[in-house]
Amino acid sequence: MNLGRGGATWLGAAVLHLALSGAAMTEPRHGLSVFGDLKYKPDFKNFDYVEPSAPKGGRLSTQGTGALQTFDSLNAFILKGDAAQMLELTFDSLMVRAMDEPDAIYGLVAASADLAPDRMSVTFKVRPEARFSDGSTLSAADVAFSFAALKEKGHPAIRLQLRDVVKAEAVDAQTVRYTFQGTSVRDLPFIVAGLPILSKAYFATREFDQTTLEPILGSGPYKVGEFKQGTFVTYQRRDDYWAKDLPVNRGRYNFDQVRIEYFRDRTAELQNLKAGGFDLREEFTSKEWATGYDIAAVREGRLVKLVLPDANPSGAQGYHFNMRKPKFQDVRVRRALGLAFDFEWTNKSLFYDAYKRSESYFENSDMKAKGKPTPEELALLEPFRASLPAEVFAEPVAQPVSDASGNDRKLLREAARLLDEAGFAIKDGKRVNAAGDVLDIEFLITDPTSERILGPYVKNLNAIGVAAMIRRVDVPQYQRRVKAFEFDCVTARFVMRLTPGLEVKNYWSSEAAATEGSFNLAGIKSPAIDALITRIVAATSRAELLTATRAMDRVLRAGHYWVPQWYSAAHRIAYWDKFARPAVKPLYDRGIIDTWWYDAEKGAKLRTN
């Protein structure tokens, strides 16, 4: 989940997992793929989207992303505390993803993976040369320990996905075997292959489940350097990194130092970039992209504006209602609240027509439901017809198109009618139910720029009698309240993978609705959705997967659990012209920290201008 600004988090990277191809493996392989063959052969030299001869050196400084613009811990594996961003740079995993394939992973710490014919276990061979950053050996015992610690004491989102992993055994120093249970085992080899590997010896004298500002021992390409709590954190490239010449790493991790800068205010962040305070920024505000970079440095080409296409699903970004609150449990109330949001006016007046309206939980992908359900979709939906809205079996729910006036009277009248129908009548200018309870809604935010967008929406809600207000809190309080589900409505963006799997349980399952810290912000509890999650996780072909995700999309959209916002299938990057990049961008990633490098000649030229 990316809250607010939609930046990547360690958790999102750590729980990124993949699905198995149709045929069971019968011998160890250098990688695992989804529904087909691997692109890269066993003797591949490097990924196609890197420059293998890229020079090492220099520094890249960039802004922190997402709503969390602070940190008080260097432990990213637990619910407690707010972890620094990009800590994943300091940890290795058994296998890593190729970012030019929809779903394929290749050996890093593991030289090979051997999946049992019945898919109930997988065995990895650990490379004997693997080392932690202090020079100690990384063995199968460390892999087994990491799993046990994460399953027992890790973040709830991780524990949920490891529920059906029975155990990890260190068969010998270089062999670790994972055993599974249940019927939803398709993704489990990929979940465990992507887990961070921790040092068993390191945690023999430390508590795993406590926040800390002591850098945790890892084995990755970087280690934590200088940092100031809540302000910045740096990662220093390791010259002695044991895996720097492996095919999965060749041409990657080229910066000597990566520094993450934290800003509480986007305006201050942009001004700092323009003043040369840091190097690179992804712009999430369309107004700033359109007007905020009209400075000499941009006109002269010293500060570059770059649009990078994004082939990933654009995710489900919107205002998410907390249905744990009784006032949001009536779908007519949720529909009415959605009708009061005028996207067309917002896009025209505030966003310079830079966005498209989100409608689907799988936007910008072939997983999005379109038209009437196919016979295959109906086969999944029919058992639940009695409990599902009629819209599920027709065209998928679409968002209303306003007259772009900012207060479309037709839509507001329909919203008022729905509230009347739901039992919230007007009394003294406010909507109240039969018990006299006022229909109020608090939008929880941390960023002052959100008020610019929310203000007109709140005005429309007030116009139909909803007591709407904006509550701005500091980031730590926001994080605590979201984790504990103590909110009415928050903005969030759920980024879907190209091949969704067990992570969808964390977004929409009944179990996740009751799990503190899960991403089921709306508190959705639906037998139909739970059943469709099982279908998604169990799909053995892309056709089966698409049928299940499209059926799921129909049910979710008909529930009106959110007010969809907007999306753009691109990354907008502004950077000082002292970097170079490969000729080919990875299809499913920005590729910046992974594949760019510092260009010393450009850097010298920039300093003299």
What is the CA-CA span between the terminal residues?
41 Å
Could you say what the CATH architecture of the domain at 316-567 is?
A: Roll
Query: How would a textbook summarize the main sheet?
Result: 6 strands, mixed
- Approximate strand percentage: 15-25%
Describe the structure in your own words.
- The strands form eight sheets. Strands 1, 15, 19, 20, 21 and 22 form a six-stranded mixed β-sheet that branches. A four-stranded mixed β-sheet has the order 3-12-11-10, with no helix packed on it.
- The longest helix has 18 residues, at 542-559.
- Helix 8 (331-339) runs antiparallel to helix 11, helix 10 (375-381) crosses helix 17 and helix 16 (527-538) runs antiparallel to helix 17 (542-559).
- The protein has 19 helices and 26 strands.
- Residues 1-25 have low confidence and may be disordered.
- The protein is globular and about 70 Å long.
- 48% of the residues are buried.
- Among the domains are: 2-51 and 89-210, Periplasmic binding protein-like II (D-Maltodextrin-Binding Protein, domain 2, 3-Layer(aba) Sandwich); 316-567, Dipeptide-binding Protein, Domain 3 (Dipeptide-binding Protein, domain 3).
- It is an alpha+beta fold and 609 residues long.
